[in-house]
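Practice record 12: protein with iron/sulfur cluster.
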Amino acid sequence: MRSKESVDYEHPAQGPDHCGECEHFIAPEACEFVEGSIAAGDWCELFEAENPVMAELREAGITPTREAVIDAEWGSSVPDPWTLEHELELPEEVQDFSWLDKEVEGRPHPGAVNDEDPPEIPGREQSRNSDSK
Ligand code: SF4
């Protein structure tokens, strides 16, 4: 953990950015990297803006789980097949590459051509199987 002095901590923030919009903020008053009590209206030089979708979900009182982020980003139009490119569009906090392991195990991954038995996208209920019923 870093001390407030070592990261030019401002209480309150002197500019437009503040801890409440930082991806390292742990509500209600902590930080991943800076020790001590951290107020949402403060700032330090380690500030990194939180992904806007994650921020919107939090502001709406919704826990930004992987499923919630995918729903917010794509709704009923989740890309099919799901590819590495789509995975990388997700905020790091909710990325899950476990479906790539399934390819290593000999199973087709969501980006495969002629994918007859695609593995589920982690954190997302599959709808394509229900289409054929
Ligand atoms: S701005 Fe600095 S102190 Fe505030 S949450 Fe981000 S990293 Fe922590």
